[in-house]
Amino acid sequence: MPVAGLDPWAEAFAESARLQTRAPVPPEPAPYVVATNRRVGYFLERFTGSRREVVAQWFGRSGRYLGMIREVLRRHGLPEDLAYTAMIESGFDPLAVSRAGATGLWQFMASTARRYGLRVDRWADERFDPERATVAAAAYLRDLHLQFGSWLLAQAAYNAGEMAVARAVQRTGSTDFWAIASTAQLSQETKDFVPAIQAATLLGRDPVRYGFEVGGSADPNTVRVTVPPATSLRQLARATGIPSDTLQALNPVLVRGVTPPGASWQLSIPRDRRDRVLAALAPRPPTRLAQRRASAPERVGATSRASTAAAVHVVRSNDTVTAIARRYGVSIADLVRWNGLDVPDRIHPGDRLRVADLR
């Protein structure tokens, strides 16, 4: 019985509006079903037999990335079993590069990587960043599943490309991967790719049963710090005592060993060196020479020409950009910008560097 004084139609409308404004519940991911057929059995036997040593290496690396990959897949509403796509793509090697140029944990080609938001240019290649590449791969697999309505066709398209799979579907009139794979409409590589992932998924669901051990773990001993544009890893290593090879290994995205110019960058460093890195990056007080120059009255004519000359440093042997910046009380980023240095380390004796803002 309606409550006196209330309009039941208004109440119903208000309740409908409340329901529409509630946060949508993420849809349950379509399940990833592993087939029990001859092709999957072939790869399962191969991975536990002649290829066991290689597969053991894959599992040995997997622990560093599986937790992160599964979390990203969950966040995108995708089945966690899709993680084993990366096992077949790269063996969980974030530095893998194929003969065709596919790169990283998820073996992205540059064009697809850029389409899904990864930076690939002369300064940085985010295909080498496991987490960013995983986010891109999750988005790509989601889109492929929306297009084909099947995880197996989505994985086939991840390998062969959307157009190749779309043509195969059109020519065969089927959306069943196994039926299409029995024809000549897909390459042998793609026909093998999907059952190999299915076999890897079976192994990943119960590695102990098959005699494999998941090794490694996400490295808790690293942290990210914000560094200025055009920060040289080699110079930072020199200033902090961190081996240059360590910094490069922690930041494989930086293909030239220098952070991109024009914007700050999140750099991965050993956690126990954080304070030393922050101290090295802190602004330096100007030297007495720089203070005298800043406080001296500006003159005209010959004095102006002398000031301009004093604002130029002639590079000597053993000079570094870091040392020059410290000497004149300026930042490395400004020194790089004023002199248009693509790579800060690339200075030579006799070079003339501007060491003050002459505006």
Poorly predicted parts: 1-6, 19-25, 298-309
- Structural shape: elongated
How much of the polypeptide forms β-strand, as a percent range?
A: 5-15%
Strand order of the largest sheet: 1-2
Q: In angstroms, what is the radius of gyration?
A: 29 Å
- The H/E string reads HHHHHHHHHHHEHHEHHHEHHE
Characterize the largest beta sheet: strand count, sense, and whether it forms a barrel.
2 strands, antiparallel
Q: Output the structural class.
A: mainly alpha
CATH topology assignment of the largest domain:
Lysozyme
List how many beta strands DSSP finds.
Answer: 4
Mean pLDDT: 85
CATH class of the largest domain: Mainly Alpha
Q: End-to-end span in angstroms?
A: 80 Å
The total domain count is: 3
Number of helices: 18
Share of helix, binned: 40-55%
Task: Report the CATH architecture of the largest domain.
Answer: Orthogonal Bundle
